[in-house]
């Protein structure tokens, strides 16, 4: 550009600046408390300083200017604090006694005020995205007393935005999908970018979108950021995945604007736009003729370039299988067509098959004219195999009469070898199905004969398995079921259904029905059972009973008179002949037992015993049982009473003070003499009244422990020992519970005035060898036994 033009441009900008300073109210006043205060922004304050008197002219304007907002640019990075604005009051007329005070958000830290001039400076670098505005309070106070000269006034400092933030895709990277073969202009997805700058001030947040990578397949709307299809015929089978780069630029996309990018991965989804295709037009399989039904004979496959449900196909046989010998199904995993056998193959009848198979897509797209298809030819060659014999029937039903003679031919089975060679066949019975070996079979012709007689009443049906084996190859075996039904003949006589026992009332009337009798027959005639009943020949003119035929194949036994009495005859036996109508007819004689009983007036049986007849009239069975129970109870009470009385009279224990016997016990050890007080209790011998005069007997074990009887206690005074011993001797001789041997009881006291003195050797100092017991024989016959005992003991010692 020429220099003259540059100068003209500078002059133009200066003129515009002067017009803006003049026209825009950069100084505002607000009356506060009858005064006015002014505030100047940084730019206007600088202009005012150049105008001089012009500033004063503006301050004297009559209208009040809005001064409660100041502005400061963000991200200022100068070395000196930036002047935000200036506060001024009408009180400041050169008076040095006022002071400006600033309070509120950031006062003292971010913003500082000159107390004398009212200039406000930003002390730190500001960021609008962190905080867009600050609310502060200004006040004029007395510099000396700090008393407020005006009420506080609130104003705002706004941070002006600059383009310092690029657009950002918060939700990126993106993934989207669109069907293949979509038309041009089809929306795919929409992306969104955000800009932290002020969307109101300038174009810092005005975004424009463009595509950097992904052309010519896709395009993007510059304003809405909608990604669309830009190329026709995009095929998934050619390329499935695309990577698109989208750019968002602020400042309306002009030069100098900031930008951000994101990546969008777009997948083409499949549609059914490809038909199934067989890999071969002709398939050939060889299948042996003995292939089991349901087994696989071969596989075909039609491939499809589509995926998922669009690639699935079904297979059908459309030609060449009029008889339905084969079927084809689809393997859900591999999508193969599996050819299976539905009917047996026979090499001898048909050796080859030619089938036409069709593969059809399961799904079809709307408007495509139907599902896609493809066809192929399948040629099947039947291979010859050695087959087992084939029975003429899978199951045979034969009949034979029971009790038929052994070797009777029941029936015949037949099997043949289906192979062209025609091997001979041998027949056998599987003995696991004929454990009792009741049947035989001819190995050559298959005739089944009877090996044992059969009884229909035991087994009505017999199921056996017959095997047919090739003579040439014993491994080829076939089986057939033979069901043999045993036919009935009349070989069982009818008989009573159960063992009947009838009851006849004495007070019954002539013609009363005693019992109803029916019969059973094990045979099973085709016409059903029909029985004939009659009395035996000897009982045709029975004076007591007769029979009456019923319509239900049973009879009723009827009494002829009412003179039946139990004391005369208690039981009657009535033989009855039962015969059937078979060929030949069978019969049996059965006996009916009739018991004469006593009954009530309404013919209810009460008693059938002869003894009951002698009871008083009107005495019931319950009363008889009660009387018998009372009699038995009385007898039991009497027996118990007698037994207790007898036990009471018998002395079970003989008191020691009344018993003169004592057991003689021999010991192998020697005692310690009189000073040995531990061998036994010597106090008992010294005190005849010890333990109340009662000492238990040691020669017998009593069943009951009795205390000494009253009135028989022996005291030391006035006791006649001779009388005492005589009494006790008499009781001992007559006591049946006494032991069958003699015993001696030792007493510590024997009465006063006895010439014998004490018999105990414990109180004497002499030994047994010094004692002479001959004087005992002089005491009389009563002490003879005692003298003999001591004499024997002395002679033993001498020996």
UniProtKB/TrEMBL annotation:
Gene Ontology biological process terms, A to Z: adherens junction organization; calcium-dependent cell-cell adhesion via plasma membrane cell adhesion molecules; cell migration; cell morphogenesis; cell-cell adhesion mediated by cadherin; cell-cell junction assembly; homophilic cell adhesion via plasma membrane adhesion molecules; morphogenesis of an epithelium
Transmembrane segments: 613-642
PROSITE patterns the UniProt entry points to: CADHERIN_1, CADHERIN_2
Topological category with respect to the lipid bilayer: Single-pass type I membrane protein
Domain Cadherin intervals: 89-169, 170-278, 279-391, 392-496, 496-618
PANTHER family assigned to the protein according to its UniProt record, in alphabetical order: CADHERIN-23, CADHERIN-8
Name of this protein: Cadherin domain-containing protein
Native organism taxonomy: Eukaryota, Metazoa, Chordata, Craniata, Vertebrata
């Amino acid at each position: 550009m020429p220099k003259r033009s540059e100068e003209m441009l500078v002059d133009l900008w200066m003129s515009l600046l002067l017009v803006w300073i003049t026209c825009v109210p950069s100084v505002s006043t607000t009356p506060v408390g009858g005064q006015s205060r002014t505030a100047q922004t940084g730019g206007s304050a600088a202009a005012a300083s150049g105008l001089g008197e012009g500033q004063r002219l503006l301050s004297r304007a009559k209208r009040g200017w809005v001064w409660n907002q100041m502005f400061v640019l963000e991200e200022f990075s100068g070395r000196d604090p930036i002047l935000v604005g200036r506060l001024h009051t009408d009180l400041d007329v050169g008076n040095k006694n006022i002071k400006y005070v600033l309070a509120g958000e950031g006062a003292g830290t971010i913003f500082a005020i000159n107390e004398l001039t009212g200039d406000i400076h930003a002390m730190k670098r500001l960021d609008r995205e962190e905080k867009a505005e600050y609310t502060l309070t200004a006040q004029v106070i007395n510099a000396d007393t700090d008393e407020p000269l005006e009420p506080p006034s609130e104003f705002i400092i706004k941070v002006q935005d600059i383009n310092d933030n690029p657009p950002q895709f918060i939700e990126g990277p993106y993934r989207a999908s669109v069907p293949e073969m979509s038309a041009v202009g089809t929306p795919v997805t929409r992306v969104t970018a955000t800009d932290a700058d002020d969307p109101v001030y300038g174009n810092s947040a005005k975004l424009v979108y463009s595509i950097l990578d992904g052309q010519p397949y896709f395009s993007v709307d510059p304003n809405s950021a909608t990604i669309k299809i830009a190329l026709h015929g995009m095929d998934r089978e050619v390329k499935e995945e695309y990577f698109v780069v989208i750019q968002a630029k602020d400042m309306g996309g002009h030069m100098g604007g900031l930008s951000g990018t994101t990546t969008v991965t777009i997948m083409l989804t499949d549609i059914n736009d490809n038909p199934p295709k067989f890999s071969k037009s002709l398939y050939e399989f060889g299948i042996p003729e003995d292939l089991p039904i349901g087994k696989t004979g071969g596989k075909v496959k039609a491939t499809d370039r589509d995926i998922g449900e669009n690639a699935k196909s079904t297979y059908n046989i459309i030609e060449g299988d009029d008889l339905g010998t084969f079927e084809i199904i689809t393997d859900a995993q591999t999508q193969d067509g599996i050819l299976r056998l539905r009917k047996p193959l026979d090499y001898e009848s048909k050796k080859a098959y030619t089938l036409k198979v069709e593969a059809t897509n399961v799904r079809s797209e709307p408007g495509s004219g139907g599902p896609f298809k493809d066809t192929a030819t399948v040629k099947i060659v039947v291979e010859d195999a050695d087959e087992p014999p084939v029975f003429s029937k899978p199951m045979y039903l034969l009949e034979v009469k029971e009790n038929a003679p052994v070797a009777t031919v029941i029936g015949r089975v037949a099997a043949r070898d289906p192979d062209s060679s025609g091997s001979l066949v041998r027949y056998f019975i599987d003995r696991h199905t004929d454990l009792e070996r009741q049947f035989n079979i001819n190995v050559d012709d298959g005739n089944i004969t009877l090996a044992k007689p059969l009884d229909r009443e035991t087994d009505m049906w017999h199921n056996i398995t017959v095997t047919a084996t090739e003579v040439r190859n014993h491994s080829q075996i076939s089986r057939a079921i033979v069901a043999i039904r045993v036919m009935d003949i009349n070989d069982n006589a009818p008989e009573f259904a159960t063992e009947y026992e009838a009851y006849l009332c004495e007070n019954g009337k002539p013609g009363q029905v005693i019992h109803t009798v029916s019969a059973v027959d094990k045979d099973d005639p085709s016409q059903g059972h029909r029985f004939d009943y009659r009395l035996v020949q000897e009982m045709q003119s029975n004076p007591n009973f007769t029979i009456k035929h019923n319509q239900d194949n049973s009879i009723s036994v009827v009494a002829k008179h009412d003179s039946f009495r139990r004391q005369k005859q208690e039981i009657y036996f009535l033989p009855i002949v039962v015969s059937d109508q078979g060929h030949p007819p069978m019969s049996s004689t059965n006996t009916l037992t009739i018991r004469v009983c006593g009954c009530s007036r309404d013919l209810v049986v009460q008693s059938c015993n002869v003894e009951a007849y002698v009871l008083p009239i009107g005495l019931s069975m319950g009363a008889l049982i009660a009387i018998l129970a009372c009699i038995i109870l009385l007898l039991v009470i009497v027996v118990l009473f007698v037994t207790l009385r007898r036990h009471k009279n018998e002395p079970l224990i003989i008191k020691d003070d009344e018993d003169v016997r004592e057991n003689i016990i021999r010991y192998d050890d020697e005692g310690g003499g009189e000073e040995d007080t531990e061998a036994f209790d010597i106090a008992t011998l010294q005190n005849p009244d010890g333990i109340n005069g009662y000492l238990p007997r040691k020669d017998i074990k009593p069943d009951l422990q009795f205390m000494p009887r009253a009135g028989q206690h022996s005291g030391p005074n006035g006791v006649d020992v001779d009388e005492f011993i005589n009494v006790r001797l008499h009781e001992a001789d007559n006591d049946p519970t006494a032991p069958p041997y003699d015993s001696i009881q030792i007493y510590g006291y024997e009465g006063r005035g006895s010439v014998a003195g004490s018999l105990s050797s414990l109180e004497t100092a002499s030994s047994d060898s010094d004692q002479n017991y001959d004087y005992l024989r002089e005491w009389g016959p009563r002490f003879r036994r005692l003298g003999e005992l001591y004499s024997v003991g002395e002679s033993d010692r001498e020996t």
